[in-house]
Specification:
With about 325 residues, this protein is of the alpha/beta class. Helix content is about 30%, strand content about 25%. The chain has 9 helices and 12 strands. The chain has an 8-stranded mixed sheet, with helices on both faces. Strands 2-1-4-5 form a 4-stranded antiparallel sheet, with helices on one face. A hairpin with a 2-residue loop joins strand 9 and strand 10. The longest helix has 18 residues.
Length: about 325
């Protein structure tokens, strides 16, 4: 059995705003094993980035607050560590590629300095060794080391994302969190970045939590997939099982919204409605207002997680036998 590197248990994160309390993440369960890539998939506003920021202890406070739960890394709860202890882990053992390559780099510092800063801080290298390490990392991501004296505005979006990857991997982290690393890039550059991340993950034996809303990216990169809706994981399975046998109505809805090359259809079948207002989440199952299978009990009772075997779990009343299921 593989070693469990990261384990999140019953995590709850709230944002206190002028409009009320926003529950961004609620009772979240997630784990990443050593050498594994787990995809965290969901619509905008599902709580994916908040989950990543919670692992890094970067939830902005105020207005954000981690209310309860635990985030264990190598068996130690990161939420109970002192800030100085977290700083030794952040960027060293756990690194993050942020969502927007246009704004995640400091515009007044050279890219070489930004990479060197991390290795000097965490690995104690001197200036010459740090510069050599920065050049090595830039070469690995396909950027000539001679450009380490350039500033972020002198690079394209795809090149900046490569710099972000080089920074994140510079200290050989055990866990890499990639927050929608290809969203701001065109399709050709997306493919190059994904191929680069796969190659570097194998080279450095790094585990990865990949946050995305693109199921094509998930199919290309991930081993396991967690489907997230309104702050909760509603389905978890290995990538082959999820793509061939999705069980939650929301997961089925996501696949129904994607064009298929194998079927001739005149219209796609999108999920009706919109994500709920986070300041006024529905009672019971949060998906019930949009769910084609919802029964009366779904409006009042929160579903439990049902284990379907072989690591496949689903958060739905159908699999508790309380609501009629699909005719397979």
């Amino acid at each position: 059995m593989a070693e469990r590197l990261l384990e999140i248990d019953n995590l709850r994160v709230e944002y206190h705003t002028d409009d009320g309390v926003v529950t961004a993440v609620e009772d979240l369960q997630l784990h990443v094993e050593k050498g594994q890539t787990v995809g965290l998939v969901g619509e905008t506003g599902a709580g994916k980035t908040t989950t990543a920021l919670s692992i890094m202890r970067l939830v902005p406070a105020p207005p954000g607050r981690i209310v309860s739960g635990s985030v264990h890394f190598h068996g130690e709860d990161l939420l109970h560590k002192r800030l100085d202890e977290i700083k030794k882990i952040r960027g060293n053992k756990i690194s993050m590629i942020f969502q927007d390559p246009m704004t995640s780099l400091n515009p007044v510092l050279t890219i070489g300095f930004q990479i060197e800063e991390a290795v000097v801080l965490h690995q104690g290298l001197d200036a010459r060794a740090a510069r050599a390490r920065a050049g090595e990392m830039l070469r690995l991501v396909g950027i000539p080391p001679e450009r380490e004296g350039d500033y972020p505005h002198e690079f394209s979006g795809g090149m900046r994302q490569r710099v972000g990857i080089a920074m994140a991997l510079s200290c050989n982290p055990e866990l890499l969190i990639a927050d929608e690393p290809t969203t701001a890039l065109d399709v050709t550059i997306q493919a190059q970045v994904l191929e680069l991340m796969k190659r570097l993950r194998q080279q450095f034996s790094t585990s990865m939590l990949l946050i995305t809303h693109d199921l094509g990216v998930v199919a290309e990169v991930c081993d396991q997939v967690a489907i997230m809706y309104a702050g909760t994981i509603v389905e978890y399975a290995d990538v082959n099982t999820l793509f061939t046998n999705p069980r939650h109505p929301y997961t089925r809805g996501l696949f129904g919204s994607i064009p298929s090359l194998d079927e001739e259809v005149t219209r796609l079948n999108p999920i009706k409605g919109l994500m709920p207002d986070p300041t006024a989440l529905p009672s019971g199952c949060k998906f019930h207002p949009r769910c084609p299978m919802a029964g009366e009990i779904c409006k009042t009772r929160v579903p439990q997680t049902t284990n379907l075997g072989q690591g496949h779990s689903v958060h739905c009343m159908i699999y508790e036998g309380l609501v009629p299921g699909y005719e397979e």
